[in-house]
Amino acid sequence: MKLFFTLLILIISNSLLSQYVLKGNVTDDQNMPIPGVRVFIDQTTYGVITDLKGGYFIELSSKKNYPIAFKMLGMKDTVIPIDIHQKITTFDIQMLTYSERLETVEVSSKKIDVAKQVIKAMQDNRNNMANQYENYTCNTYLKTSLEKSIKPNIAERSKEIDSIIAIGPAKMNFIESFSITKFKTPNTYKEEIVAQHDYADKSSNNFSASINFNFGTSIVPIQYIATNPYIFFEKIQDGDFNLYQNMLNLPKISEHPIVSPIGFNAFLNYNFDLANIFYEQETGHKIYEIKVIPKFKQAALFEGTLFIIDKLWVIQSFELNINSAAMPFFKDFTVLQDYQMIDSAWVPIRREYVYAIQDGKYIISANTRVNHSNYTFNNAEKKKDFDNEILVYQSEAFTKDSAYWDGIRPIQLKATELSFIHEQDSIEKHIKSEAYLDSLDKAFNKITFWDVTLNGVAFRDRFKEESIYIKPLFSSIRVFGVGGFRLGTGGIYTKKFKNAQKIKVDADLDYGFNNKDLKWKMGLEYTFLPKRFGLIELRGGDSYDLITDYNSVLGTFSRGNYVRKQFIEIGHRIEIVNGLYGKINLSYSDRQGIDNLILSEWSALLFGELNQPATFDRYIISLVEFQFLYRFKQKYIIKKNEKQLIGTKYPELELTYRKGIPKLFNSEVNFDFIELKASDEINLGNYGDSKWSVLAGTFVNEVDLRFMEHKFFRGSDRFFFSNPLRSHQLLDSTFNTSKPYFQTFYVHHFNGFIMNKIPLINKLKLELTAGASALIIQDIAYSHAELFAGLEKKFRIKKQYFKVGVFMATRANSSEAITYQFKIGMDFFNSFTNTWTY
What we know:
Blueprint: H1 2-16, E1 20-27, E2 38-41, E3 47-49, E4 55-60, E5 64-71, E6 78-84, E7 88-90, E8 93-94, H2 105-124, H3 126-130, E9 135-150, E10 167-184, E11 188-198, E12 212-214, E13 222-224, E14 247-248, E15 258-259, H4 266-269, E16 270-279, E17 286-294, E18 302-309, E19 314-322, E20 332-342, E21 345-359, E22 362-377, E23 389-393, H5 402-408, H6 415-431, H7 434-444, H8 449-455, E24 457-461, E25 466-470, H9 473-476, E26 477-478, E27 486-496, E28 502-512, E29 517-529, E30 534-546, H10 553-557, E31 562-577, E32 580-592, H11 601-607, E33 619-631, E34 635-639, E35 642-647, E36 652-660, E37 670-683, E38 689-704, E39 711-713, E40 735-737, E41 741-749, E42 766-777, E43 782-797, E44 800-813, E45 819-830, E46 835-836
Parallel strand pairs: 1-7, 1-8, 11-23, 23-34
Antiparallel strand pairs: 1-4, 2-3, 2-5, 5-6, 9-10, 9-22, 10-11, 12-13, 14-15, 16-17, 17-18, 18-19, 19-20, 20-21, 21-22, 24-25, 25-27, 26-27, 27-28, 28-29, 29-30, 30-31, 31-32, 32-33, 33-36, 34-35, 36-37, 37-38, 38-41, 39-40, 41-42, 42-43, 43-44, 44-45, 45-46
Helix pairs in contact: 1-6
Keywords: Coiled coil
Protein name: Carboxypeptidase-like regulatory domain-containing protein
Organism: Putridiphycobacter roseus
C-alpha cells in the first residue's frame, strides 16, 4: 500500500511539474559513496553536489542529450553524455582516483596572476553591484529536508573524502514555505510567509512547542522558544550569502562573521587560483572558474569555486564550503548560489545548502533549497514595508492543503520526500484529535518512582492545554533550609487559551522542625495580551527572603543574607510600544530579622562570619517601583499571534525608580531611589565582538531609609568567574551604599582573531577573551578597577552549545594592594537569539 501511494504521488507530481530529473549515486573504485562531488552540465555553471550518501538530484529543463560532468578533488574529472528522454532518469557512476600532475612553476604562476586580476576587478565592481537598485520584491519558495540515520564505525579513508555513510532506518523532517520577500539596500529585509508546513515526524509523538515566556526579575520577557539549531533557514537573512559585502554575518551557521572572498581584505585571508576558462553555450559569456583557498583553516572562511563573467565582473554562480572549525553545529556546510540578470540587475534565483551534523551515534544529512522568482525593482515604498517587523506569518499560512502546495511548488521533490509528506498528511488529523491526545496524556500522566523522587509529578491535558506540576521529594526535603531541616512541597498550574492568553498559579509551602515555623508563598499570573507580553500578577506569602538576590555563592545562601518577609504585592508589565517595556509594582511587607531563630551548627561552619543574621528593628514598608527599558528599533517576528523578539543593533537604555511611601498602610519608610543604565553589543568583524554596560544611581531622598533598601554590590567568588557584565571578579566583600555610585563593565571576545593564526595552537580551537570593570562608591570614598584575560574552549553536547574558560584577573582599589587570581567560568549559548550570556 505504501509503495502504491508513493508511485501515485510521483505520477501526479510529475504531471504538474515541467522539470526533468537526473538522479543517481557516485561511488569510488571501492564502491564507497563520495559526498561533495560537483555534478553539472559541462561548460555551464549550473549544477549540484552529492550528499552524504553520494546521491545527486539535478533538475533539467527539457528532453535532450546533456554533457554531464562529475568533478571532485582527488578524483578524475569525467564528462558523460546522458540522453534525457523521460521525466526521471537514473545514472550511477564510479569515479577513479587521480593524482594530478604538477604544473611548471611558470604556468602555475601565470594562473595565479590571472586569478588575482579577476578578484581585483570584482573588488572594484562591488560598489556598482551594491547600487543596482533601491529595492526589490520577489517570491521565495523554501524547502528543507533532514534525514537522521545511525552511522557505522568506519574510519576516515583519506584527508579529502570523509566516508561516513548513513545506514539503518532514517528519521526525517521536511519543511516547506512560500513567502513574499522585500529587500531594501543596503541590507534590510521584510518577509511575509504566505504558507508553511512543517512535516515533522508525527509518528514519533513529537509536537512543536509554542512560545513561552516569563519575566523573573527582568523587565524584558525571557522567551523559551523550541528551536532546532539543525534547521538554520527560517528567514531570508539566515542564508543570505551576499559575497559583495565585506563580511557575512550568518549567526545561525557561524557565530563569527565570514570574510567574503571578494571583500576588501580578501587577499589577507585567501589564496586564489585559475581552475578553468570556458564560454557558456547559451549566453556566450566568457567564464573564469576561480578556486578559493583559505589561508587559515580554523578561521571563519570559505573554500570552493567562484564562476565570474569576464568584463561584466559579476558572479554567475558559486560553490563554497565553510571551514568546519568556524561552525558550532555543522560538520560540513556547502552553499551553491546561481545569479541571473533580470531587468539589468543581477540577482540570486537559486540557492542550495547541503550540510551534515554529527549527533552522537547519528549522522544528520540536510538539504535546503531556495528559489526566487517574479522580481520587481524600485517599487514605491510604504511605511510598513521596512519597519521593525522583519518576518510575519499570515494567519492562514499553516492551513494550506496539498492541492495548494502542488500548484505553488516550483521544483521536483525526491521520491523519499513525497512519500514522507503523504505519510504525515495521512496521520495529521488523527494525532490532533481529542482521543489521540488523551491517549498520549494517559501515558505521560502515569506516575513512576523517579517522578515522585527526582523529576516531579506532572499531569497534562494537551487538548485543553492545561498542566499541573508537583515538586519531587528531592526538592521537598530541604536539609540546608533556614534554621535547619525543612520539609516542603509546591507546584504549578497553567492553562493556555486559544487566543494565546494564559493563567499560571504557583505555590510553595515548607515547615522547619528546629523552629516549628510554617512558611508559604503563592502567586497568580494572567497574561492578557500575549503579543505585547501584557501580564498582571498577584503574589503574597510569609517566607524567608534574600536581602540581595545577586551575591557571591556563599554570600547568597549565608544566613546573613536572609530576613523574614510577610508580604503582598501586585504588578503589571507590558510592552508599551515596540521596544519600550514598562513595569509597575506595588508591594506591602512586614520585615523582621531572623536573629531569634535557632540556626544549625553546620551553617556557622560553612559560612563563617557571613552566617551572622542581620540585626535590625522590625518595620513595615509600602513600596512602588517603576521600570522602563527601551531597545531602539527592536526587530521581531510575528507567528501565530505571538511575538518573537530578535533584538537590536543599537544601545539599550534602562531607568529604575523606587519610592518608599510613608504612612501608606502604616509604612515606616520614606525614600526615593533612581538608577540609569546603558548597554550595547558591538560586532567588530574579524576583530571580534564587544559588550559593555554603564550604570549610575543614587538615593535622591533618604528621610527614612533602612539598611535592607540600600544598593548592594556583589562580592566576588574565590575561584568562580561570574558574569563580567554584571559583577566584578575581585571585589572582597559585598558593599552597600545610600549615596551616589558608578559602575561600568566591558568584555571583548577576539573570536579566534589571534589564536587561529598561531600554528599548532590553532588546532586546539581556543579563543582569547579580555575585559575590565570599575566601581566608585562616594560615601566610603571607594574606587575599584580590574582587568581580566582568559582562554575559552567551546563544546557541544547534542543540541546544547557551551564554553568553559580559565581567566586571570588583577585589580587595584582604594584599600588593597594590586593582586592577581585565577578563575574558572562557564557560559551557555541561546540557539534562538544566537547569543551567549556574556
